[in-house]
Every structure is written in C-alpha cells, then in structure tokens.
Amino acid sequence: MEKIMKMVVEKIETKFDQEKVIEEFEDLTKDGGRIQEETLKKILEQNGGTEYLEQWGLNGRTDPQTFKNCVPIVTHNDLEPYIQRIADGDLSPILTGKPVETISLSSGTTQGKPKFVPFNDELMESTMQIFKTSFAFRNREFPIGNGKALQFIYSSKQFKTKGGLSAGTATTNVYRNAQFKKTMKAMCTPCCSPDEVIFGPDFHQSLYCHLLCGLIFRDEVQVVSSTFAHSIVHAFRTFEQVWEALVVDIREGVLSSRVTVPSIRLAMSKLLKPDPELADTIYKKCSRLSNWYGLIPELFPNTRYIYGIMTGSMEPYLKKLRHYAGELSLLSADYGSSEGWVGVNVNPKLPPELVTYAVLPNIGYFEFIPIGGNLNGMEQANSPVGLTEVKLGEEYEIVFTNFAGLYRYRLGDVVKIKGFHNGTPELQFVCRSNLLLSINIDKNTEKDLQLAVEAAAKSLVDEKLEVVDFTSHVNVSADPGHYVIFWELSGEATDEMLQDCCNCLDRSFIDAGYVSSRKVNAIGALELRIVKRGTFHKILDHFVGLGGAVSQFKTPRCVGPKNSSLLQILSSNVAETYVSSAFC
Questions:
Q1: What pLDDT digit, counting tens, does each position of 85-120 carry?
Q2: Which residue intervals define the domain GH3 C-terminal in the entry (predicted)?
Q3: I need a surface site. Which of 55, 84, 165, 435 has the fewest CB within 10 A?
Q4: Which residues contact 329 (CB under 8 A, 6 or more apart)?
Q5: Residue boundaries of the structural domains of the chain
Q6: What is d(CA 272, CA 22) in angstroms, rounded to the nearest whole number?
Q7: CA-to-CA distance for 41 and 58, rounded, in angstroms?
C-alpha cells in the first residue's frame, strides 16, 4: 500500500499522466478490504498514543474488530470538547499524533453555526488524490487541451483561533494551499481569475471580476465550475443584471467603480485593456438570446462541460443550470464534506440525478450503518458493516475514520449502494439523515420536500414563472403543528394560482404518516409563505457575514428552531401567506 500511496500523491509539479492515475485507482479498488485494513492500521499507528484513543483501551492493537469493539461511534457533539481544546492551543496529542495547525469550518447552513473540524496535510493529500482521479476519468470522456477554467470560487476570511491556529472554511484551506494551484495547472485548468479576486474581501466584487475575467479569456475557457451548482446559477443570474456594465468595462478598458478593493483593482488593471471588438461580440450575443437560454456556450464557445456538486440540496438548481448550459453536459463533482472525502465520480457521463461515487479505500476507514427503513432513529442496534460487506440496493449511514482525528464519526449522510467498481462500492447520495420534516409519525426527507416543490411549481411554468429558491420549517408552536414552506418567485403570480400551489404542496407529501395525520388533523394545514425578491440573497449575505465562503454555501432546506437568525430573515420578508385547504 505504501508504494501505491507514494504513486498517488507523487510530486504535483510533474506532467499530469491521466492513464497512470486511472491505473493507480484500479489497483487501489481491486482489493478494497485489504486496503481498508492497511489504512486503519496506518491511522491507528500514527494516532494510537493520543488522549482520545488511549481511553478506549486499544493497547496498540490496530485490527478492525478490536477497533470496533473498543471505540464508540460518535457525532460531532461528542468530539467538540476535544476539538475546542486544540483550537484553544492545547498542544498535547489529543486527537492526532502530530499537532493540528489548521481548523476547517463546516458551512454552518444546516444548524445555523459552523462546526470546527481538524484539517491537516493528509486531508490535503486526499483532496488532491480525489481531484486528480476525478479529472482523469472526466478527461477521458471529455478531453480538454491547454485552456482555462472559469471557476466561481471564493475564499472566506481566515482567522486565528484562541490558540493561534489558522481557521477557515474547508474550501478556503484548499484554495490557499500551494498544491491546489499546482494541481490545477498540471491538469490544464488554471483559473481565469487572479488570486486577488479569489481571495477578495467582498464576494459581490469578486463575482463581478470572475465574470469579467471569463469574458476576457472567453476563447480559452474550457470548463465552467464552482464547488456547488448554486454558485454557478447565482453567477449567471448576476450576469443578467450586470452584463451591460461588463461590456462597458471591456470596451473602455476601465474597471467599473463598483469594484473598490484596491488589490482587486490593481490585479484587474493588468488584464483589462480596451477591446471594442470583444465588447461588440458580447453585446450582440446577449442581445440575441431568448430568455438567456444557452448563455454559457454563447459566452464561452469552447467550453466542454459544467462542473460542480449537483446532488442533494443542489438538485433544485439543475433546471436553471440546464437552461443556462443549453446543450453542454453537466458533470457532478465528487463526494465529500468539511470533515473529509468519501468517493469520486468515475462515471462522468451519468446525469447528475443518477451520479454515483466510488469510495477510495485508502483515504479513510469506512463503516456503514444499515438504515432498514428507519431514517429517523438509526439506532446502534443496526451494527455497522465494512466497505466490502455492503449490499446492492441497500441504504446506509456513513461512519468514517480519517487521518485528521475523527474516529468512527457519523457523517450524517444516507447513501444507497448502486453498484461496485472492482472491490469498492459505488454510492448514490440519498439525503442528510438529520434533515427531516417531522411532527409526530410523519417523516419527510429533503428529497421528499424537493419533489413536492417540483410538483407544485409545474403550474407556474405557463406563466413563465419559477421558484428561485425555497426552504421549510416545522411550526410546532401552533396546535396542531404544521409544515411551513417558504418560496421566492421570479415574478408575480395570482392569489388563485398560489393557493393551488399551496394545496398541491400539501398533497405532494405522500408519506403515510403525514397523510394519515393530516386527515385527522393531528398535523395542521400546510402554509405556503411567499417571500420578497432577494430574500435568499439576504440569507447568503448573512452566511458570508458570519465568515462563510460563497463557494461553500448551501441553502438550508429545513430551518430548525435553533436557527433563529434565518427564521427572522425569512419571517420579516414574507409578502403573502396561503393556507392549504387540501384536506378540508
């Protein structure tokens, strides 16, 4: 395994060898069980002397059975006191043998506040392994030459913890690492935008300049990407508003006064020169488009595909993204979280709705808790199984152990086994285990909510309206409790139409517990609240104001009672409210 690891994380500066990377991946996945045992052994040898692991009595043993018998399955809440001590400057080996120097922040969009998780060199190496493996399979199907990537990536503000550790979002920690830029260059997809734009303090100004850089290098752009599909949709919604200003900047060679950050203005002045011909081209193309359909290939004619995470909470943006993409392929990025990586998309031709992820058996030790139809509880009575013990078609919650101090950690994701790549499973993301609309016996997942919104929004299409974004809340302060759905629309709809949408939403939750509870009024009538235009942009601004990165933003699909600041933004921007009469 040591030999394979060295091959996989070889010096990035060398020329990217696509077939070699694929060959290494095939070798890794042929004997997933053995690689898993070796990976766990390596993790425990490096960290067995830590305070956390010593308390569980492993006594130097590194085999999977002893590990499972001795070390408990945990959530972030269980590890939070240990991570906080590290952040506060305790240098003793608490979770890892080597000192942790960097802390990653989760997005914080689900619970209302970001979580601290350790970040180290091993996680950076696994990130680069994922990036290279994914690119190798992608480039085999969609080959690109020497060009550029229009990447809508943004760095959040890094800060120092009480103990002097650097802290920032996981994406920021990756973008700021020297290996990232070297890897992008080796894969022939350097970013169009200078670092000053990526690391700028104001994401509105950075977004404007990302768009401008893309237009300046329009003939070289081969990939349009961001961490999440939401960021790409947001970027081109913004383009609709600012395209004429961008054309003026290109025509005159002078950056708009809306960009005020000196470092960004200086960096852009080196790229921006008067180009009336390019300005005319862009103006004509934008003027000819019908409702902005096919905008991306019109602006960037040599683009091969659009790339980003498009599963889970990103699926609702696919319709709009396809509208902008025209005939271009949408390729879903790999499967990971702030805590670490899980799998890689080795079947890039699959549409995002069907994408699967092959688990890399050397980046962590993986266990899977069978769901067995019990999404809400997932009791420990369901004993976890190993990577090679999962069954086709079954659903599991992921438990993983990594090189950065997380041991038997419940990731909170539910996945379905869709197949196998050699000896490693291919997973399909199902939902977050804790994102449930539930009042009593009802259980509706994020996917159930998405399907209900899609069904109800169909009647808007004839009026050329769309749901810009949505979220939900369970109101248990009322008696009986009921679901509240928040919609932001692209324009004005009639009361009659929105009442129909409200009723359709209520009927579209087909969970047996919900339907039976609604019929006897154990769950009250669903509320549809229409919020003012720009409300979800305020939520994004709020998130960024807390230190989050736009690249990492995910609209929370269910706003819990603890997330009072988001509830306040939503509630204060309600324009109209409709109450379902579906079960009257």
A1: 988 888 889 888 888 888 777 755 445 567 888 888
A2: 447-560
A3: 55
A4: 142, 304, 305, 306, 349
A5: 121-335, 446-579
A6: 39
A7: 12
